[in-house]
Each structure stands twice: as structure tokens, then as C-alpha cells.
Model the fold of this input.
Amino acid sequence: MAQESSVKNLIFDLGGVILDLSVDHTLQAFADISGLDKSEVTKRFVTAEGFLAYEKGLINDAGFRAFVRDTYPVQATDNALDTAWNAMLRGLPLNKLQLLLRLKGQYQVVLLSNTNNIHLEYINTQLLPPGDTSLDPYFHRTYYSHRMHKRKPDADIFEQVLQENNFQPHETLFLDDNADNIAGARTLGIQTVHVTTPDLIIDYFHA
Done:
């Protein structure tokens, strides 16, 4: 694949694009600590509103843990809950981080992630290379849903990123593994790449 020549700006999703992600690991971990069948855990994960509320920063860490204890239900320590919640975060491949640093010299590179405080803290303290303490230096700017009180695929989160960075939609490429998020960006005229395999960005940018 080759980049569109008009592209000046890149907006990257995190999980499933840069970060190796497996939600199944968290679903299994919740099943293990709750004793519920995994299919029931999955059903509640998809339908319970607290997960989305946490991504939008509408509840804090303590509120999220209370929500999980109530949803499954489970009596578990904060550490046990956080470990289960973070189980989906499988790693940050070094070649992808190196790609981001290279792309920063050619494009304006932004991160736009639907995430939450527990995940971000784990990423910054456990998954980055030794000596690194934040994802921020790998991008010109980073945007996290829980800090913005907005989340993809809603138009307002894309509009904020475009406006704050003076990006023109037709000069901007958005890369995400979620089809709904891709559709949301396209409605604003943003160019898109649907990331359907873990190493797609490596192939796309010929890294």
C-alpha cells in the first residue's frame, strides 16, 4: 500500500493499531475472578454502560472498580480488578514505536485513543521501553477520550483534533481498527485506513 500524496497529517488509534490488544484476555480474566460463564461476561461487557462512561471520563477509577464489582458481580481487590482489566494490553512492539518517530519527521503525527486512566497508567509504566515514561514523545500531540470527555466515533472528538491542530480533513489520514470509528472519520471528509491486521501500519508505511 502507498500513502496518498496529499496527506500531511496522521491520526493514529492506539489499541489494535500500535498497541497489541486482545479484549478476549480481559473477558477471560473477568470470568475467572467472577465465576461467570465467559459468554455472560461478554454480554455484560457489551451492554453495560459503565465501560463507555469510563472511557469518557464520566466516572473515576474508584467508580469504575465499583461498577465492575457490581456488574459481574465480584469481590476482588483493586489490584486484582486492575490486573484483569489490563490483561487486554498485550504489548507495544518496538518497531511500531520506531516507525512513529520516523513518521514525525515527515508528517504531523497525532494519537487519538478511546482509553481510560487505568489503561494509560499501565501503558506508561509497564509497556514502554526502559527509560520512557509516556507515550507523548512519540507523537506531536496525544488525545485520550477520558481526558476529553468525548469518544470515537462521535464527530465532536474528530472536530476537536482537526480544529486544535489546524488540520484540513482531506490532508489528514486516520488509522483505526474499528469500523465504526473509520466511518465516523469519513463523514467529516478525513481519509482513512481500516487496520485489519496487527502489522498493517508497518506494511503501509514500508517500515
In short: The chain has a mean pLDDT of 96. The beta strands are 9-12, 20-21, 89-91, 108-113, 141-144, 172-176, 191-194. The two ends are 12 Å apart (CA to CA). The CA atoms of residues 49 and 161 lie 25 Å apart.
